[in-house]
């Protein structure tokens, strides 16, 4: 995956966009529960989830309108649409953000950046 890296031109942001792209292209099974109690079970690509939620599960409205997460087994409270999508990626699709320089990985991209810039044991000075 990193075979094209050129040491002096490599930037961590390139790695992050590779990771993000891999998340977006990966297929996951949607376990959103329909009102009749049946799980959706459709296979959805990462980048298509927000459209899928809108079209199949009625997650529509303004970015601030509230939605409950109906994912199988989820006990979470309501979210606005953007938070719901982020929640889905973190908690249900299990997107992870590995640190480009050590082996740790993180649920949030921001946390990973903070780690990389401040706390990473292999941080380059
Ligand atoms: Zn679904
Ligand atoms: Zn949930
Ligand atoms: Zn690290």
Structural features:
alpha+beta; Double Stranded RNA Binding Domain; two-stranded antiparallel ribbon; two-stranded antiparallel sheet; 13% strand; binds zinc ion; C2H2-type domain-containing protein
Question: How would you describe this protein?
Answer:
The structure is a single chain. The protein is 37% helix and 13% strand. It has helices at residues 12-25, 49-57, 81-92, 109-119; strands at residues 27-29, 43-45, 66-68, 78-80, 97-98, 105-106. The strands form 3 sheets. A two-stranded antiparallel ribbon has the order 1-2. Strand 5 and strand 6 form a beta hairpin. The protein starts with 11 loop residues before the first helix and ends in a 6-residue tail after the last helix. Residues 99, 101-102, 104, 115-116, 120, 122 line the site of one zinc ion. The site of one zinc ion has 7 residues, from helix 3.
- Biggest sheet record: 2 strands, antiparallel
Shape: elongated
Domain module count: 1
Secondary-structure class = alpha+beta
Tally of helical runs: 4
Bound molecules: zinc ion
CATH secondary-structure class: Alpha Beta
Order of helices and strands: HEEHEEHEEH
**What percentage of residues falls in helices of 4 or more residues?**
25-40%
Per the CATH scheme, the topology name is Double Stranded RNA Binding Domain
First-to-last CA distance: 25 Å
Average residue-wise pLDDT: 89
Number of strand segments: 6
Radius of gyration over all CA atoms, rounded: 17 Å
The percent range for strand residues is: 5-15%
Oligomer: single chain
List low-confidence stretches.
none
Q: Would you identify the CATH architecture?
A: 2-Layer Sandwich
In order across it, which strands form the biggest sheet? 1-2
Protein name: C2H2-type domain-containing protein
Organism: Pisolithus microcarpus 441
């Amino acid at each position: 995956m990193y075979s094209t890296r050129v040491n002096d031109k490599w930037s961590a942001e390139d790695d992050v966009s590779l990771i993000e792209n891999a998340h977006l292209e990966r297929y996951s099974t949607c376990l959103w529960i329909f009102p009749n109690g049946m799980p959706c079970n459709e296979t959805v690509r990462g980048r298509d989830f927000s459209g899928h939620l809108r079209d199949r599960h009625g997650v529509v409205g303004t970015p601030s309108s509230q939605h409950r997460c109906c994912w199988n087994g989820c006990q979470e409270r309501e979210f606005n649409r953007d938070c719901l999508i982020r929640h889905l990626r973190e908690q249900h699709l299990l997107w992870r953000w590995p640190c480009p320089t050590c082996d740790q990985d993180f649920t949030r991209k921001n946390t990973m950046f903070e780690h990389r810039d401040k706390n990473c044991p292999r941080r380059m000075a």
